[in-house]
Amino acid sequence: MPLYRAHAGDGVVWITGASSGIGRALALQLAHRGYVVAATARASDSLDRLAAESERMSGAIRAFPCDVTDRDAMHGTVGEIETLMGPIRLAVFNAGLYLPTHGEAISIDDFLTTFEVNVFGTLHGLGPVVERMKANGRGHVVFVGSVSGYTGLPAASAYGATKAALNNMAESLSFDFEKMNIRTQVVNPGFIDTPATEKNDFEMPALMPVEKAVDAMIAGIEDGGFEITFPRRFTYALKILRLLPHPLYFACMKRLTGWRTRPLDFRGTTPVNVRSN
Question: CA-CA-CA-CA torsion for 55, 29, 181, 179, nearest 10 degrees?
Answer without folding.
Answer: -140
